[in-house]
Amino acid sequence: MSSLVSSDAGSTLEFAPRASAPACPQPRVRDRRRLLRRTHLPFPSHPLGRLQLHSLLETMASRLLLVLVAVSLLSAATEGYNTSTGMVAGKLNVHLVPHSHDDVGCLKTIDQYYVGSNSTIQGACVMNTLDSVVDALVQDPARKFIFAEQAFFQRWWAEKSPKIQAIVHKLVDSGQLEFVYGINGGWCMHDEAAVHYIDMIDQTTLGHRMIKKQFNKIPRAGWQIDPFGHSAVQAYLLGEEVGFDSMHFARIDYQERAKRKGDKGLEVIWRGSRTFGSSSQIFTNAFPVHYSPPKGFSFEILDDFVPVQDDLLLFDYNVEQRVNDFIDAAIAQANVTRTNHIMWTTMGDDF
């Protein structure tokens, strides 16, 4: 399989050629019966019995050694992925954005969302999300994650020991945990239709102040993926004027989304102020579907998906098929966007 698609979760994954899985012939029924049949050996005290037993043990040991070598070689073959960082010229670069969108109060209260109570309404526990994310990032330096809502993060941060806080500092400094190049950084992801602009400014300022104080970082992108509708105030005052490089959102009218997909107009330069014109414009990106992964690539435990099975010893080895599924989904999105760089909606969803 040739290298067709590269991806970026902050890093780039290029699918290199892989050898096909070796055939694993099944034993015949007669052979299986032989394997199951009890082996009768002469009594070990007899010299001939001891020789036969010794010979059998040597044969078994040599076969076991061959099996271990084969397993080792097959395991090494499954570790041949290229996960180095960087973009690939002339390829379709798919930028993966692992995230969790956490409403600061919606179907449940903010306290219920944080500790995971009242799960009959919605299964969500932000405290566990942050705990598991930090553990996963520590285990693998190639992993990355973005987090937006400071109302939850600051509560979690205040509960952690100096040791855990030091670990999080390293994750932020290394770019594994990001408040910078992909998220809003406000206290919450505010509405844009029914709120006063002063409240939008205040809550954004509060979140940015916390991030600056604790990590000396400044968010660079507007991440308004869930508000129902978007205002010029957000594009101008809380976009370009805040210092953001770009804005990203998911919710637009279904008719407008269909038209923009047909015209390849999901990515635009938004001039939020008629007064300031081009001096206040900002790159804006509307997602082609939603802020969840493409179908078949949401790996939550209750989701319907086919897991990637890359062990060559498995009968259901399916790396080539899942890579082809990835390529098909990436090309489908590339067909409604303008360049060879696409953000694969987002690798995450609510909570």
UniProtKB/TrEMBL annotation:
GO molecular function, one term: alpha-mannosidase activity
Lineage: Eukaryota, Viridiplantae, Streptophyta, Embryophyta, Tracheophyta
One Pfam family matching this protein: Glyco_hydro_38N
GO biological process: mannose metabolic process
PANTHER family per the UniProt record, alphabetical: ALPHA-MANNOSIDASE (PTHR11607)
Name recorded for this polypeptide: Glycoside hydrolase family 38 N-terminal domain-containing protein
UniProt domain Glycoside hydrolase family 38 N-terminal: residue ranges: 93-349
Organism: Zizania palustris (Northern wild rice)
Domain of life where this protein originates: Eukaryota
